[in-house]
Structure formats: structure tokens, C-alpha cells
Design a protein that fits this description.
This protein is α/β, with parallel strands linked by helices. The chain folds into 2 domains: 233 residues, Type I PLP-dependent aspartate aminotransferase-like (Major domain) (Aspartate Aminotransferase, domain 2, 3-Layer(aba) Sandwich); 134 residues, Aspartate Aminotransferase, domain 1, CATH 3.90.1150.10. The chain contains 14 helices and 13 strands. Strands 2-8-7-6-5-3-4 form a 7-stranded mixed β-sheet, with helices on both faces. Helix 3 runs parallel beside helix 10. The protein starts with a helix and ends in a 14-residue tail after the last helix. The model has no long low-confidence stretch (mean pLDDT 96).
């Protein structure tokens, strides 16, 4: 019986691999590893522990991972031009918790983007931040819902004197106005934290804003969205050494123990690829997102933020309320092997989170498979035929996707 279950699980793993090779994946929080990096998932590091810092471990036998971790940390500090880099968190949320646990106390006021305004769940009362304070104030948004209302935000900073303001979003189309609020935050000693989970690769490629230069005190991020590494998290900063030591303790033993050494080694490899190809990749991702947004608009979809050029990131937001809403549309597309997620839009009430008007699209994975502007326009046609014309398009999706199987922006061709 146990062996039959074993075989069944093997079968399900194989089916996932086979199916995903046929799909157009537009999930904004996912990406793919290069073939070379992926091949190092099952190394001996998958079996090992390494608590603490390189050279100061609580376990013996860590010489090689010590070297890899030190190299990764050096590369991260080089890419983001910062003095401190924490690479031990195993996810972006773990990275956020490492920060919140040491810089936020129970009575502190924190400002963050609301869920309808694009904020991530880890910034809210029911997420990581809510473990340390319930005094969370929504950052005021402009009428379009995709930009901060700077004047109102500065007023709140001056009056509420928050301990921290958390920037960065889950639905993230445009840069955050860090420089505009920096002076007000300095006067109230408000820490500016920037969650770069979605845009870390765009920042690394020098094609988005530069949070640490613009005034963010620290930056957290996921390493597997536009930064095309293994699934982990980072904390980056130029803060003073004493404060950094607090964050260090927040990462270990705060939010992690052993930090999944096999994915750490993969991240080191992927970071080297990002250093080589990141600028071109980031530029191609943003261009593809703009092209797809315009193409969807041309096909009759209600694409958000049109008056601002749709997007400056990898993401596109679409109001599909006329087509039945985000829950329905995402399911219909999934049936035809186009994968994306339903998503709340800024105008919606939080109670609509499970039946929102919107869908969120990300182009970073398909860009890494070599798709460009022409392919983005064809994806828009496929989505229109599926959602608006009620056509079965799976054969077309499979034929199209089958032309794009090799991961680009990688060292695969040198192996």
C-alpha cells in the first residue's frame, strides 16, 4: 500500500512537469529556474543543517555552504550597492517577519498599503505584521488607486508619527514615491521599509526605482518573481551596525533555524545569472508587460491604469467584471491552460476578496522562456477568444507554448 502511494505521488509530480510545459503561465509571483540551476536542487545540501553565520555555525561540516553563502551575500551587496545583506530567510514573508519582529513593538503605529490598494497580506493585521502590532493604518491612495496620495500620507506621518511605513505591493504597477515622503519620515523618525518582493529583479536590473538610494531604510524581497532564483527571501540595507544586528537576530533564531541550504546554493547560481543578464531581462519584462496591456486593451478588455501607460513593472491589472469577474475568468482561462490569478482592484471592498472584479497578469516567466512583443500580442488574442468568444483554445495554447521551452537569460548554453 505504501509503495502504491509512493508511485502515485511520483506520477503526480511527473504530470505537473508535463502539464506546465504546455501552459502559458502568467502568475505574477512565479518564475522558472534555468535548467542548470534547477539541476542542483537535489544535491547533498538538501540533507544538511547550518544554523548561524558562516564560520560561526552550531553544526560542523559546513565549509562548502559557508563559502557559497559568503559569495552570495557579497553578490547581493554588489548588485544593490548596500552594506548589509541577509540571505538566510527562506521566503519574502520570513524576511518581513525578521524585520517586524525587531523594529516593531506592540503599541507602535505602522502605515502600509491596504489589500485593495495592492498591499501584501504579510503587511496586515492577519499577517506577519499583525503578530507585532494591530495599530496599522492604510496609506492614502490617489483617486486612481494605483498611486500614493503623497500630501495626505505626509499629513498622516506628521500626525500619527508611525514607527514604520511599509512600501511595496502585491499588485504593483508603478514606483513608490520614496523621495517625496523621506523628509517627513526623517523628522518623525519613521522607518521606511520597502518590500521589493515583486520588483526585486527589476531593481537589480536597474530598470525600476532604486529604493535604498531614494531613502528606504531597508529593503526586503522574494527571490523568485522578477528575480529569477529559487524560492527564498532577502533583507538589504545601509543601516547602522547596531540596528543591523537586531535584524540579524530576527532572521536567526527569529524567523528561521536551518535555512534550506539546497535552495541557498541555487540562489547563488541564479544571482550570478542575474548579474550577467539582469539589465536586459528587466527591460524586456517591462516592455512585454506594456505591450500585453495595450494589446488586451485593443482586444476590448478593461485594462487598468491606461492613463498612466498601464504599468511600469511586470504586472498588468484588468477589470473583468463585464466578463463575470476575476474568479470566473481565471477559472475559464485555467481550463484552457492559461494560468493567472483573480485579484482585487483598488475600487473594491475587502469583503470581495474571493470574488473580485480583477485579474492580475505577470509576464516575467514567459519572457524568460523567450517570448517578446509579438508573442504578447498573440496571448492577448488567445485570451479574448477564450474569455469573450467562449472558444476552446487549449490546442492553440499547447502549439504556441511548445515553441518556447528553453529558458533564456541563463548560462545553460555554456554548460
Amino acid at each position: 500500500m505504501n509503495y502504491q502511494e509512493f508511485k502515485k505521488t511520483v506520477e503526480l509530480i511527473q504530470k505537473q512537469d508535463e502539464w506546465r510545459e504546455k501552459t502559458i503561465n502568467l502568475i505574477a509571483s512565479e518564475n522558472v529556474l534555468s535548467r542548470t540551476v534547477r539541476n542542483y536542487a537535489g544535491t547533498d545540501f538538501a540533507h544538511r543543517y547550518a544554523e548561524g553565520h558562516p564560520g560561526e555555525r552550531y553544526y560542523r561540516g559546513t565549509a562548502f555552504i559557508d563559502d557559497i553563502e559568503n559569495r552570495l551575500k557579497a553578490c547581493m551587496k554588489m548588485i544593490f550597492q548596500c552594506n548589509h545583506g541577509e540571505v538566510r530567510p527562506i521566503s519574502g514573508t520570513n524576511a518581513n517577519e525578521a524585520v517586524f519582529s525587531k523594529l516593531v513593538n506592540r503599541e507602535d503605529v505602522v502605515m502600509a498599503n491596504s489589500t485593495p490598494g495592492g498591499g501584501h497580506i504579510s503587511h496586515h493585521r492577519i499577517g506577519a505584521l499583525g503578530k507585532f502590532t494591530k495599530n496599522i493604518i492604510d496609506i492614502p491612495m490617489s483617486p486612481d488607486g494605483y498611486h500614493m496620495d503623497v500630501e495626505k500620507t505626509i499629513y498622516l506621518i506628521k500626525t500619527a508619527k508611525p514607527k514604520m511605513i511599509v512600501l511595496g505591493k502585491s499588485l504593483f504597477l508603478f514606483p513608490e514615491p520614496i523621495a517625496e515622503i523621506r523628509e517627513a519620515c526623517e523628522k518623525t523618525k519613521t522607518t521606511i521599509m520597502y518590500d521589493a518582493a515583486h520588483v526585486l529583479g527589476l531593481i537589480a536590473g536597474g530598470r525600476f526605482q532604486d529604493p535604498l538610494r531614494e531613502g528606504a531604510f531597508l529593503m526586503t524581497g522574494s527571490t523568485h518573481k522578477t528575480f529569477f532564483g529559487s524560492q527564498r527571501g532577502v533583507v538589504l540595507s545601509n543601516m547602522d551596525n547596531d540596528t543591523w544586528r537586531k535584524i540579524d537576530r530576527g532572521a536567526f533564531p527569529g524567523s528561521s533555524s536551518n535555512h534550506h541550504l539546497h535552495t541557498l546554493a541555487q540562489l547563488a547560481l541564479a544571482t550570478n545569472e542575474m548579474m550577467e543578464f539582469g539589465a536586459r531581462y528587466a527591460e524586456d519584462v517591462i516592455n512585454n508587460a506594456k505591450v500585453l496591456a495595450a494589446a488586451l486593451d485593443k482586444q476590448g478588455f478593461d485594462v487598468e491604469a491606461r492613463e498612466f501607460g498601464y504599468t511600469e513593472t511586470h504586472q498588468v491589472a484588468v477589470n473583468v467584471s463585464k466578463q463575470g469577474g476575476g474568479e470566473k475568468v481565471s477559472r475559464v482561462l485555467e481550463t484552457n491552460d492559461i494560468i493567472l490569478n483573480m485579484n482585487m482592484l483598488p475600487h473594491e471592498a475587502l469583503s470581495r476578496h474571493d470574488h473580485p472584479d480583477g485579474i492580475r497578469i505577470g509576464v516575467q516567466e514567459m519572457t524568460r522562456f523567450g517570448m517578446g512583443p509579438a508573442e504578447m500580442e498573440y496571448i492577448a488574442v488567445l485570451m479574448k477568444e477564450c474569455v469573450m468568444d467562449n472558444r476552446e483554445i487549449r490546442p492553440e495554447v499547447h502549439a504556441f507554448r511548445g515553441k518556447y521551452t528553453d529558458v533564456k537569460y541563463s548560462f545553460d548554453d555554456r554548460q
